[in-house]
């Protein structure tokens, strides 16, 4: 028996062991399956557990904290990348390209509006390549302008912070490079920048890492959540765009006091946060190494704490009666504990809602901002399959920017975090469509299925995007942007012989002179760039050279300016300017004849050439005057003053005087008058009136005109009116006296005395007229009329003369005659009239033929005929007055002669002695006798009251 048992032990027990193994395996599989099930559903189990074990308030704050963590997670990733990147040890280079595509319909639209600048241009692009090496101490940039994908012009820059240098070049225009220190060129403090780059690694070490930063953010987030109370929960079904989702709505309100208390709590906690203080001081301590920052860590932190304390006081003082005194908050949370929607409502009918509902693969979304009326709203639905999202939406912005659209986003399944693509299509709808159709009512182009399409794609570090407006499937206008990494290249420094320093303006101009606009234009045309653009771009360069050349000319660097003008060829009369530069070089070398010859041969038309020509005339005249060659000097002065009529040089004034004096002494009175009148007529003549010789010329001029050529001919046969004392002369009204006195006094004070404040200093009274102080009267009369009373009497007499002489002249000419007139005298007076007219025309920069039309004459012949008639009338008038003086036996006592002489001396602003010395006694007696005849008629003719 015992053997059987033994046998059994040896042979039978195998079956029970097998069953035990199977049962063990089954049990193991069940445990494993349970573990997988629990693992897969742990989140849901955890959520359900928390929801059942926590109060609604605790659970909401837990959910909100998780949501906020998820929200700032991407920001934390970027922060960590930035912190690690502060070490700037890597070398990198990338290229970015911005391009505009001009569709056929857009180009046709341009042509309809008369814009042909874009003819033949399909794309316009700007490409920027940027790189850094040597721990960012060296940075390079290359910017290119592209037309139809062809690079046309570029700017090449290299910044070296280690050596404090900058290089700048435009390869298509010149092989020379400008170089300078960064401080001079761009205002950079290169040493401070260098120090900053060197301390960045130390700064990165002082900045808290991601975990610490997240912990700090969570702490302050929990502080904010701790102030929220009275949270209520409601089970609801949220429906957005026909997609429903079960959720719990958590609702609470915040008032101004809660918001204020929360803000104060955060600031107080921040002021006492020792961990934050440690990091703050650490970061600032790292920056202390940069001298330009002038930082002290402890002082900076103290200032920060002071700012927090001031802010706390400011917040605590806010008025409780705020416009938004309560904010109602609704947060929608799904069964998995995720926030799917938020709703904020404030006093004043302000609401903001944002949410997404999901049901299997479908989802709906909505976002809107509402005050009294919706001002922004976007809503739609879609579906998500694997890593692809697509759907449709409607956009409404203030009821105008209305559009329907679709979107699609996806990623490469192999590397979804690196490779993504996006596409959004907008189709105008509602009022936006109406506005487009209204604008296009003139049928600029056929509007058919317009769409705005945005596409973007990231492939690793590459990024591409495009925004295009399409019409009937064709691109109307498109804008694209791409950025791609490139292989790092070592910076290339220009060789010494290719460098021009930019330290001075002159050196920079040397570089500008090397720009070859003509070769640049030819090269563009050879690359099939439209001629309009080729010429326009080249002209930009030419214009810069032209401006610089003008600046050089203005600063009298004629030789450098000549180089620039020569490079410009015939652009904008640059060849004229080049000739002018050569002439100015000769002028500075006092080679006036050679300069004038050059200007006369080439005849440049620019205003600088005219200035040069005028200066040559002036210097030549001055030289001749110094040699006492007055006649020839005067010819050059005349050439000068024709170009500069408002100015007459001092030697020119003296030249006129000396020649006029010689003519006067030789009794060539007409010629003397013409010369003297030049001095009298010039705008700046009063500048020289302190010199007695000029004043003498001014005195001689009117006498030479009126009497000197004619007094010997006053012996002709004169027929006088029968009773020349019975001339019906109206009385002069008092208001006429006052008006004349005002005008005469004002003229004297302004012109003779040079008093700019004359009008303010004259005492005006509506009833009594103008009054002066005795000092003013004496000043205006040159001391001859020392009191106001005597000066008023003088002005009253002048007023009567001004009023009666035209009436006397009219009566005497109508009722008397002269048997014989001096034709030569009349001719000379006509010549004088023409001389004066031409002089005035040149003073006003007018051509004589045009100026006579301004005087009211049809042409020069009509003007000369009028001048001849006036000369005849003047001669007859003086003959008749002389005849009356003889018939009445008028004569002048010495006292009367002196009185007349004083009056004339006063009017010419010189003393009596000077007046008598400057004029011939016989001429004066003849003139004063005619004056006495006029006085006799005025004093003795009959008067009638003026009606």
Characterize the structure shown.
The chain is elongated. With 947 residues, the chain is an alpha+beta fold. Residues 1-17, 31-43 and 683-712 have low confidence and may be disordered. Strand 17 (451-459) and strand 18 form a beta hairpin. The protein has a 20-stranded mixed beta sheet. A two-stranded antiparallel sheet has the order 21-25.
Which blocks of ≥5 consecutive residues have pLDDT under 50? 1-17, 31-43, 683-712
**Into which percent range does the helicity of residues fall?**
40-55%
Tertiary shape? elongated
How many separate helices? 33
Quaternary structure classification: single chain
How far apart, in Å, are the first and last alpha carbons?
179 Å
Structural class: alpha+beta
- What is the beta-strand fraction? 15-25%
Radius of gyration: 50 Å
Number of β-strand runs: 26
Indicate the mean pLDDT.
Answer: 77
Could you describe the largest sheet, including whether it forms a barrel? 20 strands, mixed
Keywords for this structure?
alpha+beta; 20-stranded mixed beta sheet; two-stranded antiparallel sheet; 947 residues; disordered N terminus; single chain; 26 strands; 33 helices; 53% helix
Short description:
The protein is of the alpha+beta class and 947 residues long.
Topology:
Layout lengths: L1 H10 L2 H27 L1 H12 L2 H30 L6 E11 L1 H9 L10 E11 L4 E10 L2 E11 L4 E5 L7 E4 L1 H5 L3 H17 L3 H17 L5 E9 L2 E13 H17 L1 H14 L9 H20 L9 E9 L4 E8 L3 E10 L2 E9 L3 E12 L2 E10 L3 E11 L7 E10 L2 H9 L11 E9 L2 E10 L2 E12 L13 E3 L3 H9 L3 H10 L4 H24 L3 H11 L5 H15 L3 H11 L4 H20 L3 H14 L6 H16 L3 H13 L10 H15 L11 E2 L9 E2 L3 H19 L5 H4 L1 E3 L3 E3 L2 H7 L7 H28 L1 E2 L4 H21 L4 H7 L5 H28 L6 H14 L4 H7 L2 H20 L2 E2 L3
Parallel strand pairs: 6-20, 22-26
Antiparallel strand pairs: 1-2, 1-19, 2-3, 3-4, 4-5, 5-6, 7-8, 8-9, 9-10, 10-11, 11-12, 12-13, 13-14, 14-15, 15-16, 16-17, 17-18, 18-19, 21-25, 23-24
Helix pairs in contact: 4-8, 7-10, 9-11, 10-11, 13-16, 14-15, 15-16, 16-17, 17-18, 17-19, 18-19, 19-20, 20-21, 21-22, 21-23, 22-23, 22-28, 24-27, 26-27, 27-33, 28-29, 28-30, 30-33, 31-32
